[in-house]
Every structure is written in structure tokens, then in C-alpha cells.
Specification:
Length: 387
């Protein structure tokens, strides 16, 4: 099958048939951070309240669970701080947790982000703590796991590490169970520069680790999105026993997961079939009886994920925070939603040449589930753009 792209004719690769996942991977705990599906008939112009297609949004979460992945919801992939307002977020948390119960334990299958984005004018540590508390209670009451997201308001107000420790120290008792802490780098959100009390990453890491060691029994894991493999490996080794490191590195995830990181990744929204297949192979590798068998299986793990890395690096290229557009674009190509539309009009955040390259890289990674549908939709997008 061939399609004419602005860069020239492109012949699609042989399609890949991914194995059916019979049970979730056991060697790693893995979350896919999930996007929301916009209502194409709703007013999702920039600045408008989010109009969400709830049926399609929940159907996509069922797709992720069917591949044995957990869902990280109401996170930056779902356009928190970039169009998903608190009313829609609150509904998403409730609906996602309720839907998870048809698959199993909601607290295991879905974890939701709790932040302070509904209180943009919070100007004191007490106001920020109160805003966090409201959202944590919303997640807790829905029955989902809690991910304590980085706060733009705290980044603005805090004068140093002690302020972060004061706020977070008060939050651990609110959740009722251990939480996941989220360190989101400024490449994902420039307003989070200097989080944990310093723009120097080594000093910020010291502050972060001090907090975790002081509250280790209340921290289930940490999700780190700094796109720095060396830093993540060192941080992972420095965590208290029993505290997981969930990689949020959408550039280096194959090696980080292989060497011991768990995962909470936006790219797994787009590459769920490949990720699930690789994780099954990793399970087999870690259970292998001989070193020869282990090395053979690890090579197969690398082989599965290697073609997904150029795709992920393209989707997450600078400006990284616009990666959601590529994620939703692939969901549309793969038939998970009827329209290439996003809340806040964010489908316009990437250029047509960028999206064409995402199309070809997804095909080379075997991640166009129905090539005929994907080509039809790609041609439609080209036609709308006069090509």
C-alpha cells in the first residue's frame, strides 16, 4: 500500500500482528498515561471549558487495560494545565475509577493525578496545601490510587526546599494509602522550573530524596520525567527500599525499564501493543533458567521496542509539552476516536510535516492497527490541508 506524502511517495511496511496479552506483566508495574477524547461537536476552542467524549475516552482506557497496562489518568497526557479544567478532571477521575471496577481493583488499575490547577490564584503555602487536599480527597473518594502532581502554584510561591517539605509533609496523611510523587521537568512544563527548591538538578534531587526518606512508608513510588537516563539510574539507586521508580523518560524507556525502572509513560498510550509484548518477553527473561536464554529474550525485548523509540522521540520533540497532539493523532489514525480533535484546540500544536513523520514512524514500528483506515484518514488530513 502506498500513500503520497509531502515528502514524496511512501510504501507502508508489512503489518505486525501483536500477541494477545493473557495477563499483566509481573516483572514491572507499568502505567500508560492516557489522553482524553474531545467531543468534536463541542466548543473546544482555546480557553473554553473542556467538552469531552466520555464514551470514547473510557473505551480507550478499556483498550489499555486489555493490553495488561494500568492507567495513569488526569495527568499531563490528559492535558492538565493545558485545557482540561477541574470540572472535567473531576468527572474523568470518577468515571475512570468506576470503569476500572469492571476489570478489577480500581486502586490498582488506575491512579489519578492530584494537583492545584483549580486554584491558580493560590498565593500561600496553606492555600496550596488546601488545594492539593481537595484534589487528593477527590481521587481517594473515587477509589483510585493517588499521584501527587507537581504544582505550578507551589513552584511560584516556594522560597526553598523547606516550603516543599512543609506542603508535601501535610499531604501524605490525606491520601489514606501510599502515593506516587511526580517530578515533571521544565521541558514538559516551563512553569515548573526549579521544582523541589533549586534550578540545580543535583540540589533539587537532594531535597527530593530527603523528603522521600523522611516519609518512605507513605511513598509507593516516584515518577520522574526529566529525560536524563544517567540521573534516573542514580536516583533509582538512592531511593529507600520498597519505593519504586516509575520512569517518565519517553526517550530512554527501553533501557531504563530493562535495568529496573517501573514505568508511567505517555508514549505507552500510543504504543500499548508493542509495550505489552515487550513486557511479556521481559517477564520471561527474568524467569529464564539460563543466562543464554535470558540474553536471547532480552535481545528480543530490545528488538520489539527499538522501532518505537524514533516514534517517541519525534512525538516528544521540542517543544516537548506539545507531545499530546501526536498521541491523539495516533489514536485517531488507529480508530480509537472518530475525529482528530482535542480540548483547547491543541490538535493545531504540531505541523503537518511533523504529523506525516509520526505516521511513517508509527507504520515502521508496526503500530498502525488497520493500515487501510490509517491511510484513509491520513489522506483526508492531507486533503483538508490542500494536498
Amino acid at each position: 500500500m502506498r500513500i503520497d506524502l509531502p515528502s514524496g511517495p511512501y510504501t507502508l511496511a508489512e503489518p505486525v500482528v501483536w500477541p494477545v496479552v493473557e495477563r499483566p506483566a509481573t516483572s514491572r508495574v507499568v502505567y500508560a498515561a492516557a489522553h482524553v477524547v474531545a467531543d468534536p461537536l463541542g466548543d473546544n476552542t482555546p480557553g473554553s471549558p473542556a467538552a469531552v467524549d466520555w464514551e470514547a475516552t473510557l473505551r480507550f482506557r478499556r483498550h489499555l487495560w486489555s493490553h495488561g497496562l494500568r492507567v495513569a489518568d488526569a495527568m499531563d497526557t490528559a492535558q492538565r494545565n493545558m485545557g482540561l479544567d477541574w470540572a472535567a478532571t473531576r468527572s474523568l477521575i470518577r468515571r475512570s475509577a468506576e470503569e476500572a471496577r469492571s476489570f478489577g481493583d480500581a486502586a490498582e488499575l488506575v491512579a489519578c493525578g492530584a494537583g492545584t490547577d483549580h486554584a491558580p490564584q493560590a498565593a500561600t503555602l496553606d492555600e496550596i496545601t488546601a488545594a492539593y487536599t481537595e484534589q487528593i480527597e477527590t481521587v481517594r473518594d473515587a477509589g483510585a490510587g493517588v499521584i501527587v502532581m507537581a504544582s505550578r502554584q507551589l513552584a511560584r510561591v516556594a522560597t526553598g526546599p523547606a516550603d516543599y517539605h512543609q506542603v508535601y509533609g501535610k499531604l501524605f496523611g490525606v491520601a489514606g494509602r501510599p502515593v506516587i510523587l511526580h517530578w515533571l521537568g521544565e521541558m514538559f512544563d516551563p512553569q515548573l522550573a526549579g521544582y523541589w527548591g533549586s534550578r540545580d538538578v543535583s540540589r533539587a534531587t537532594e531535597s527530593f530524596l530527603e523528603l522521600i526518606h523522611a516519609h518512605a512508608s507513605s511513598v509507593e513510588g516516584v515518577k520522574v520525567s526529566l529525560l536524563d537516563e544517567e540521573h534516573e539510574v542514580a536516583l533509582r539507586a538512592a531511593l529507600p527500599e520498597g519505593v519504586k521508580l516509575y520512569t517518565g523518560d519517553d526517550f530512554n524507556y527501553p533501557s531504563l525499564i530493562r535495568t529496573g525502572s517501573h514505568a508511567l509513560l505517555g508514549i505507552f498510550d500510543a504504543i500499548a501493543p508493542a509495550a505489552a509484548a515487550a513486557l511479556q518477553v521481559l517477564d520471561a527473561a527474568e524467569a529464564a533458567c539460563t543466562e543464554e536464554a535470558r540474553e536471547r529474550l532480552l535481545a528480543h525485548y530490545d528488538e520489539i521496542l527499538a522501532p518505537t523509540v524514533p516514534l517517541s522521540r519525534k512525538i516528544f520533540e521540542t517543544p516537548t509539552y506539545n507531545y499530546k497532539t501526536g498521541i491523539v493523532f495516533l489514536a485517531w489514525l488507529n480508530g480509537h476516536q472518530d475525529a482528530f480533535a482535542m480540548v483547547n484546540g491543541a490538535q493545531a500544536a504540531r505541523s503537518l510535516p511533523h504529523l506525516c513523520e509520526v505516521f511513517t514512524l508509527a507504520d515502521r514500528a508496526g503500530l498502525l492497527a488497520d493500515q487501510e483506515l490509517a491511510v484513509h484518514r491520513m489522506r483526508s488530513l492531507l486533503a483538508v490541508n490542500g494536498l
